[in-house]
Amino acid sequence: MPSGANLIEVDGKSCTHEVAWPPGQEGGLLPPPPRAGPPAREYPFPLDPFQQTAVNALEAGHSVLVAAHTSAGKTVVAEYAFGMALRDGSKVVYTSPLKALSNQKYRELQEQFGDVGLMTGDVTINPNASCLVMTTEILRSMLYRGSEVVRQLSLIVYDEVHYLRDKERGVVWEESIILAPKTARFAFLSATIPNAREFAEWVAQTHGSPCDVVYTDYRPTPLEHYVFPAGGDGLFLVVDSRGSFREDNFQKAVAQLQQAEVKGRQSGGGGGGKGKKGGGVRDLAGAAKEESDIFKIVRMIADRNFDPVIVFSFSKRECEALAQQMQAIDMNGEAEKKLVDGIFNSAIDCLSEEDRRLPQIGGALPMLRRGIGVHHSGLLPILKEVIEILFQEGLLKVLFATETFSTGLNMPAKTVVFTHVRKYDGGGFRWVRSGEYIQMSGRAGRRGLDDKGVVILMMDEKLEPAVAKDMIKGAPDTLYSEFHLEYSMLLNLLRVEGVEPEQLMARSYRQFQMERALPELEARVAKLEAQRDALVVEQEESVTEYLKLSQQLAKLREEMRAVVTAPQHCLPFLQPGRLVRVLPPEHAQQAVSTAASAAAAVAAGSSSSSSSSSSGSSEGVLGVVVNFELVGGRQEGEVAGGTASSRRGAKQYLVDVLCNCSEDSLRHQGANRRRAVPIAPSAKGSPAVIPVALAELAAFSSIRVYIPQDLRTQEARERCCKTLGEVERRFPKGLPQLDPVEDMRIEDEGLRKLLRKAEGVEGLLSKHPLARSPTLAHRLDVLLQKQALHEAVRTAKKEAKAAAALICHEDLKARRRVLRRLQYTDDDGVVTLKGRFAAELSTGDELVLTEMVFAGVFSEMSLEQLCALMSCFIWRERSEGGNKLRPDLEGPYASLREAARKVAKVAADCKMELDVEEYVESFRPDLTDLIAMWCRGVSFADLYKQTEVFEGSLVRAIRRLEELLRQVAAALKVVGEVALAEKFESAIGRIKRDIVFAASLYL
């Protein structure tokens, strides 16, 4: 327990309490006592210690951060805040990260308190209510504009405040916290975070008032974590209800997974149940195939009454495919089926007859009646809400959902299943972080209904045991700042009297974290400098000279090897039986990092000639060529470990090489698109034939050995590997190599130049005064350590300097230059008419849109063209349709690209880190044709037939378009362009219809 923290325990339930006071203020460290008199809100159950402590802090006029597990009961604190506002006649705001979540929370709170309003941008209900539910973006906008509501605020509730670390939107949380009135207090609700105290200290410093931290690991319903090995038939308990990790059971699960892999390979399959998660469960002839793993798990859950269950997958299409595998399962009785029919039909009553016949609507009911549902962002919003309501009512027993279902409203299940734990995060695929795993697994276990929650992780051969263990045992994610500057932020700040952008940046959580890290960074610099200065290299100058020559030689050898391994030069010598040396998979990343060992080899006299050095005879692991083939169209990184020579979709030669490989790398080579790691024939491993790119062959020996035609048996491969070991023993100083000029007859002037240079460098090395020194290898090693420490000192000093300076300072100067050159501000930094317009926009690219409006691009367009062109600002996904453009949109789209290029060039000239062409291409026209059709009045059913995009994604795009049109119309009125504003409002009228804008069921 941290110093200054108080442990509060009642009836076996405990929480930790700390209080952060502003700098210069001193106060008590004990939790505030209960307020005298009746509470603002009473509950039919006794409050848990963390709930009571948080409530007392709010009543004492403090801010409070409540960090607790999902389903622990954090909502009680938000409800009490609403009760306080109604009792005291003040205003309270509840913010959430998502519009859908705001709608749900509005319904829930409105039923309890009555005097509740909702503001999400597209929906406004009772804006003068004492209690307002809104998205964080709406709150930020109100704070910038100094609305009357803001001046009356006494309390702001931030639900899911850990969204602050979201790369795109996290900055909105920081802005709104910093800009909130000094008189307001906060109730932050969050999942468990290890640095809760740090966040509370920032809030206390920013607002000059104490902030209490109430942290609990208490889980009302304890969890048990199980592993299901792919291809297996049982569960292994790896974390019990007391939180103890069962290492023995985990190892048993890993062993069963490996057995399933071996069995799968022997039977000619993919091994380990590979491929059995997706797709159907019947073959083309209609015969029943082996049951998929997920079918086994769901059936077992039903048999053991472990439902309802949420099955998490990170792919919308996989959610759909997994649900289709449940055709044989029916988990609802007749009475439940009737209830499902009633709720479903009531929900879609508001839709037109044509919309009710949409495939997604029509196809949902049969599955829902069986108690099985799907929930992801590709669903139509109304269908998603029906599924949420059915799940809350206990009418869905199995729900296949993406990660978004784990955010927000309290919808627990008895069991949670992870089909896999690899997700795409916009930049690439990665393993789920332990904090994300904790957040989602926290949905298991219903308070008051279950004695325990069950979490099942399906583990396949792609998931390394160490990764799985860290995920299950891991700690929650640290809360860190993703603060960054935006043009609309700067323009809004410049418009507020007495506020400068530097002030906001100085008060940001990111600046606070940087300054807090400064003493540690300075200590690190001192420590690294001491370590560096402690290393003494005898004759350092001379050793450095030798090292540079060695590195130069290593680089020349790399360049020569690239010539020698070109297909036209080496293919004639890749006959079966040729001995070759194979580079390790990571060689591409450390091409010249082995200079010390190379230099030591030269010093020892192992480099006999320039021709042998050209082949890198001492590098790599010995193997024998089996065959080679020309392949093409593979993805980068799929072949031979993803060397630098791989080109996306390019053809290349692959050489099948038999060599001894480590057991662990063999197990993972297919699953993770990595190459098995070759090891010395004498080391413990398994002989295997692996595909190797030409660029990863280090050397070609003049020796060839006999290999049997059939290498499919383990025995044949082992005999061949023994031959390799025998050859190495006979040539202890290295195998004879093919000379690239004499033997391989390579007629290449570039290679001859490289050979001459290499001979010259080798001559300098052999004549060097240190060449025969017995301590040379040691001195080189110490020098490399010293150089690495010198580089670490330089990096640490840079980090310390950045921590001491104002964050984003250079970015601010660059953005200010951009705004000045584009005339959004004048020379004195005063916001111009263009700047006032751009400041009103937050959905699309504010600068490009403003340039187009002020250039008159939209004035002569039809409503259809206007809507279609505006879709380029809200669509960033790559879709199958490509960049098709109607002839009448070619001119307007060219104007958009011209405006984007203008903005990008100015930004690049102002030292912004920006790729001009990439920026211009980011305005994708993929939806233009669909939006034009929608604007013409085409039905959603007909519109959907024209695209591969999920229905829900299309609805979300049209709704975002409406939001952008609304913002532009409002901004036009601000600058006095009433006629054009009316045109944009007419465009809104064209697209705002039917199922796309069906009212939320929560409203």
Automatic annotation (TrEMBL):
Keywords: ATP-binding, Coiled coil, Helicase, Hydrolase, Nucleotide-binding, Nucleus. It is found in: Nucleus. One of its GO terms (molecular function) is RNA helicase activity. Residues 20-39, 261-282 are annotated as: Disordered. GO terms for cellular component: nucleus. The keyword Signal does not apply. It comes from the Eukaryota. Residues 55-211 form the Helicase ATP-binding domain. Residues 511-559 form a coiled coil. PROSITE patterns: HELICASE_ATP_BIND_1 (PS51192), HELICASE_CTER (PS51194). Residues 293-491 form the Helicase C-terminal domain. GO terms for biological process: maturation of 5.8S rRNA; RNA catabolic process. Belongs to the DExH box helicase family. SKI2 subfamily. This is Superkiller viralicidic activity 2-like 2. It comes from Chlorella vulgaris.
